[in-house]
Specification:
transferase, alpha+beta, 6 helices, globular, Phosphoenolpyruvate Carboxykinase, domain 3, NAD+ poly-ADP-ribosyltransferase activity, four-stranded mixed beta sheet
Length: 261
């Protein structure tokens, strides 16, 4: 991307972390930033959501990736209703970049023609109290302590929230980590309890899902379940649950997943 990601702004990007020009970068921690939805955390840090217009190349490419990554044939009438760019507070972005650089320094993944830190774009489905399609109209989200969606938007992924599974299940195949998957259909399942009625279509529900950059580094590949695992073995940065591995109760993983701690 050459120009600022803000619609109708033709200025060149000055910050690749956000794809913003200098003017909009300065507004990022204020209410004057031209976002669709704004959230201020208890720490007074601002997160902005900008709805990507349908019909743009960014919307189309993201939608196509989501549908391509839907590999479980268990849904009818599947579609993407809305996509948002998430602009997290600078402190969160800085911490993430620092961690990624540290993982890269240990693993030299670029020398293997991999992204820095073996970073991948993965899916995370979660429960949420907000109805984000309504929120685009009222310009706010609930910020409830019980809303996992708002918590992630304000604070990114928080390891202290691990194990709080709104599906009513306590089983954690790869241990007490944050779970991600390359398959949108797998992540979709974990947003089941957060499904909200569609504002314009009776009988239809909507769910929230995140497409997130995840630093995987050197992945550990276990062969069995370890629900108490809180970190991979020394020398590894994440855990890779492979398809067909980690049997539990006679069932193995049908679709791969990753856990970071």
């Amino acid at each position: 991307m050459t120009y600022c990601s803000i619609s109708r702004c033709n200025k060149k990007i000055e910050c690749s972390d956000y794809n913003l020009c200098l003017i909009h970068l300065k507004e990022l921690n204020s209410t004057s930033f031209p976002s669709t939805i704004q959230l201020k955390s208890p720490q007074n840090l601002m997160t902005h959501l900008i709805e990507i217009p349908r019909g743009t190349s960014e919307f189309t490419s993201t939608e196509q990736k989501f549908l391509k990554d839907w590999v479980k044939q268990n849904a009818q009438g599947l579609r993407v209703d809305a996509i948002y760019d998430i602009f997290l507070p600078q402190t969160i972005v800085t911490n993430y970049k620092s961690y990624r650089a540290g993982v890269e320094a240990r693993g030299n993944f670029r020398s293997l023609s991999l992204p820095e830190g073996n970073e991948r774009l993965l899916y995370h489905g979660t429960d949420h109290d907000c109805a984000v399609i309504y929120a685009a109209v009222i310009k706010s989200l609930c910020k409830s302590n019980n809303c996992a969606g708002c918590g992630i938007l304000m604070n990114s992924f928080n390891i202290s929230k691990v194990g709080i599974n709104k599906q009513g299940r306590t089983f954690q195949r790869l241990g007490q980590g944050l779970y991600f998957t390359p398959f949108s259909s797998k992540a979709h399942f974990y947003g089941h309890r957060g499904a909200k009625p569609h504002p314009n279509e009776s009988g239809r529900t909507c769910r929230m899902m995140f497409m997130a950059k995840v630093v995987l580094g050197n992945t550990w590949q276990p062969n069995r379940v370890d629900q108490n695992c809180r970190s991979p073995p020394s020398g590894f940065d994440s855990t890779w649950g492979r398809k067909g591995a980690c049997p539990h109760g006679g069932a193995v993983l049908n679709y791969e997943e990753y856990a970071v701690y």
